[in-house]
Design a protein that fits this description.
With 213 residues, the protein is of the alpha/beta class. The protein contains eight helices and nine strands.
Amino acid sequence: MNFSSKLIEQAVNAFAMLPGIGRKTALRLVLHLIKQDKNTTESFADAIVKMRQQIKHCKDCHHLSDAEICSICADTRRDKTLIMVVETIRDVMAIEETNQYRGLYHVLGGVISPIEGVSPYDLNLTTLLKRVSPTVKADGSEAPSAVKELIMAISPTIEGDTTIYYISKQLMNKKIKVSTLSRGISFGGELEYADEMTLGRSIVGRVPYKNNP
């Protein structure tokens, strides 16, 4: 692909770095932006720069946030006794679309996969265990965690089941109920690609997790 401008070539190369964007599509996007007025293009670029510079991960659940605590964790109307454990941020978005869940979330950042070199220490497990552990009061006594149930909304794959099993083992001495989504989600499927009705029914019909090897 020949370019008459190095600036256009650089812009095309930048867009082509995005997933699912080939060089032809990247060129169409660049030419579209060139046709827009200067203010529109600058606003587009400014939004990307601000997003990258200012976006944070919630210190509680690891979801994307504009502040230290995301809007879901800060929402007093959410059920603090429930935490839904998911692999990725996209899973949170998919589940929120169902309008079937009003608890909190915890984003692991992946699943345990020895083949790909992902161990439990590479995931956001330390903060999850902290969230379900008793808190120490000023007088030294312990207050039980508000969390009563962990819902394992992890894609039903071998790696996903391994991750659920590992987490459940860590919770054996804690009075926390562990449940999984009902198998409306087919084994081997990706959670984010499930349709809203199937995903919603799986949340409502969740079942207790049996910690068997």
